Amino acid sequence: MKKIEGVFAPIATPFGADGAIDFGKFAENLTKFDRTGLAGIVALGSNGEFAMLSGQEKLDLISAIRKGISPNKLLIAGTGCESLKETIELSKAAADRGADAALVINPSYYKRDLNEGTLEKFFCAVADACPVPVMVYNMPGNSGINLSSGLVVRLSAHPNIVGVKDSGGNIVQIAEIIAGASEGFSVFAGSGSYLFATTLLGGCGGTLAVANVAPDLCAELYALCRKGEVENARKIQLSLLHLNSCVTARYGIGGMKAAMDLAGFYGGVPRLPIQPACEAVVREIRDEIEKLGLLGKYR
Question: pTM for the full model?
Answer without folding.
Answer: 0.97
